[in-house]
Amino acid sequence: MKKKGWLILGVLIVGGGAGFFAYRRHEAAMALANVPKPHTALVKRGTLSVHVYATGTVEANLTVQIKCQAGGQISKLPYQIGDVVKKGDLVLEVDPTLERQARDLARQQLNQSKLNYKSALLNYQVAKLNLTTTRQTDEANLLSDQAQVANDKLNLQRDQTLLKENLAAQQTYDNDKTTLVRDQQTLRLAQVAIEELQTEALQVKLQKNAADLADINVMNSSSQLKQAMTNLSYTKVPAPISGVVSDVNVQPGQIIASALTNVGGGTTIMSLVDLSRIFIDTTVNESDINHIKVGDKVAVTAPGAPGRVFAGRVVLMAPVSQQDQASASGTTTSSSSNIVTFQAKIEVLGKDKALLKPGMTANVNIFADKIPNVLYIPLQAVVISNGQDTVTVVGKNGAMKSKVVNMGKRNDLDWQVVSGLKQGQAVLVHETETTSMWSPHHH
User: Using 50, 70 and 90 to split pLDDT, how confident is the model at 238?
Assistant: First the structure.
């Protein structure tokens, strides 16, 4: 009876244990059935579009600081910050009283110079006419006196012949000799008068020089009047460009310094900003520079315009790095970073670009090169662990193995595989935040 009892008890224990293990196997099967299958992706080969990301600052097309070339008290200041100004509009006027007085004085001096020139010119013309008349008179007198002396000599010779033959009186001979001497003296005076014409000719040249100097004074006075009128025009400052007033540094009634005569460059009146074109000034890492070219399309976002994406294009790429630019200009940088960057300029396109204000921070996504015939996987397949890029390779039997890979260029979706994977392999795609490469504990 005891043996039979122990046998029954053993059967019950064995049966209970089998039932327990069967229950556990069923429970495990049910748990596996409820676990979702991991999301995987295949390593693909194809063309990868490279994107370059950078952060920059919004800039206007042009910013101009306006100064006044005339000094004085501000009488008109019609525009304030935020006002729209068209090119040529009056943005400032200073009291023109002193400049008007200077203009009037210069005009009077010009009129006086013109009168002086006219007088000098008349004096020259009179002297020239007098020289001509005097020359003609003196030359005629010289010819007349020469003829008279020649005639006197003939008369004296005739008297001398007749006197030898007692056909003429001694008194007649003496009278004719006296007449010859007197006429010779008159001829000498006529010759002296001809010589004095050279002095009168020099006087005429002096009168000509005086007229020329007076003419130069007219030109100088005319230039002074033009300068005075220019200085008067400087009291009104037109807008050099069309734009928006971004800054005003003065107020009506304030006395400002001239930008021409002041050693410090004069007073800055205001600043105008041309918003007709908007640019993003940014820098690109040296590893990305050769993938970017002028004309590449760009997507621009900004914290100041949330939810908006602005179209853009690359319009400038610096040929040398910013470090080289600093060295060429003789400047030094306090940064100890060895990162080499290049300046890039991006123009924002579209009618909504006005939402971007100069000085804002902007993020740019440059659609750069397309790399053909490369291996690539989704971004979410990569986990950065301890400074290394790793992926989880999923075998055909579902087995998973972590592997370090060497990654290259990437875009918003995919990442180039340089080494570590083969085409067709399956990799685990991390869809939750806890396994994402962007999770803070993976950095």
Answer: very high
